[in-house]
Fold:
Amino acid sequence: AQKITQTQPGMFVQEKEAVTLDCTYDTSDQSYGLFWYKQPSSGEMIFLIYQGSYDEQNATEGRYSLNFQKARKSANLVISASQLGDSAMYFCAMREPSSGSARQLTFGSGTQLTVLP
Amino acid sequence: EADIYQTPRYLVIGTGKKITLECSQTMGHDKMYWYQQDPGMELHLIHYSYGVNSTEKGDLSSESTVSRIRTEHFPLTLESARPSHTSQYLCASSEYRVGVNGIVFGPGTRLTVL
Structure:
């Protein structure tokens, strides 16, 4: 069963506008963590933001915020004021304690974001 | 700055050659991982290690092997490279329980087997 689902293979946004990248997850654990990573064309994976399942506030890091809706099991990434440098692949990931230490993070299939000038 | 290093960054090699992809981290992390990723596609865990002398196979079957003789070093070896091994290989590390900073990734090695 797919643990992390990213339904948008590709997204376009105009520079300076906000964009939301969708992520839904599936877990029976009460304690879990959600992560977003950015992968530019150069290939490295850059950690962006973390949300714990017990965190009451939505996580924010600069222009990145996480729209966490626990009941809907969604953890969408919101990028405000998009910049050309935001063009990249974005991966959502989840940490579950019951998954065993083997699969500490389960990754989604990614969303390719293109920021248009 | 992430303190995890991979060499080489790019490698083009002929079929049948033996190759070793190097990965080192200076964060003292117990756990290390190798992921394989085709361009624009999802990451697949191929190997991981809990610590010294511990190695396990991941989700995706791979003909590569790994070793963990030192905490900071986690090399990946292909005894006989084939064109099907062409991919990007990402090394990563983390604390034993992945914390709020997630898994730290290296810059990756892009392997092309001719």
Summary: Chain A has a mean pLDDT of 92. The radius of gyration of chain A is 14 Å. Chain A has no helices and twelve strands.
